[in-house]
Amino acid sequence: MADSILEVLSPHLDSNGPPPPSSSRTSPSLSTDATALKYMNRLTTLSLDSLKSTEPQSISHSAHSTLLSLQALSNRSHKAFIASSDHLSNLQGLIPSLSQEVKKLQNEIPKLDEEAVRFSTRYSKAGENPVLDRRRKAMQLSRNVDRISDILELPALLSTAVSSSAAASGPAAGSLSTNKYSTALDLYSHIKRLQTLYPDSPLVNDIVLQAEDAMKDMTTNLITGLRAQNIRLAAAMRTVGWLRRVAPELENPRGNGGSTSDEGAFGALFLVCRLASLVSTLEALDPLRELADQETKRRTEAPSSEQRSSNSAKTNAWSGGQQTERFLKRYIEIYREQSFAIVSLYKNIFTTEPSSDTELITASISGLKTQPPPKQAKKIDPLQTLPPTVATFPIHLVRLLTDTLRTYLPNVRDKSSRESLLTQVLYCAASLGRLGGDFSMILTELEAEDEEEGEDEESEADGELVREWEQVMRKHRALAGKLEQLTNGPSSAANATKGLLPVSS
Question: If you ran DSSP here, which 8-state letter would residue 503 be given?
Fold first, then answer.
């Protein structure tokens, strides 16, 4: 029904409506317009009166509403309409330019493909390229930056450990100092291991140089520790052990493998440090030494024996040597304690060949020449290996004491005081005698040395001194024999009379 009405009304609507579209624009006809069909179906449902009265008003009202809606829409979106219109007008020129750009892109694709192939060929992982090598190294450095920072901190950690161990050294902080030195040695061993693994690395070589400077400071601290007063055996053994690890080249300084013992140069270093400690301790007696020097000066400037009786009333007459006695008594006490401690520490720290150490010490003091052990004859060294340092060290110790006695003992004129001092010297000789360094017979040579100097009065005094020394030794041996006979029997008494057993004071 609606189709039929549309066919009837179609000529009237086309003639009264807008002009038909051009051939290039196609629009649907009224017969196919869904809105028109829907409206025609609605018209068929209305009566004739409604068509004449209400329908025109409804259509007018709808047209007015639609007009108002279009006006509101135009007011709100006129900018978008204008922009759309502009773009639509430019679309005709943009489509040809887009076509040209597409053609140009098609022409450039082969060149792009060639460049991609060339880049992949040049920078492939299979070939060698400096740019890739630098990039690879930079990436590897970025991945290992934490490890490198840890390696760079090793010299600072080593220096801190060495400095803190030196600050913590002392009798009250032995364990702390031990831990710090052990940590420093472990760090240095790790650095040397890195040098072994990476010998061509400039970074590792620089770190090794800094570590060696820190270890030089540690060696200085250890040598200073060996010069400390009243050092214990455990501390001395630890210090020597650390020195062996810090300076292994001192194990065999000659580099020919001809060492007669395991001490290397450490034995001489230890004895020199302990001797320096002994000398510094004896230097503390300088105030008493100055008083003794004044008595020596007064003794040497005193008048001869013929004029002494006439000038006995003078106030500047020389006294009996009380200050010298005080000085010598304290000197001998320190010497006895320190000398025995030095040699005993040496013998406990450094392992030497059995039964040869004591013989070498005794022979060096008595002036005898000891035949070398049989196995030393097989050495190829043309200069022959040197004996242990302890074999010649007691000579210097004894000379230090004898020079002091030769200088100051004549000042003491009181016989009982001299006997007391000589008894102290005898006890000192007996202490070293336990270690094979008995020097009791050396003082008997003072008389011969003084006679060669041509001083009659001094030689006479020294001869009296030697006789007193011999008497003290006889009394000492007799007393030792009696004591040993009461305690251990006649066999021990025989040894005591030979002066081989020490007697306590």
Answer: -
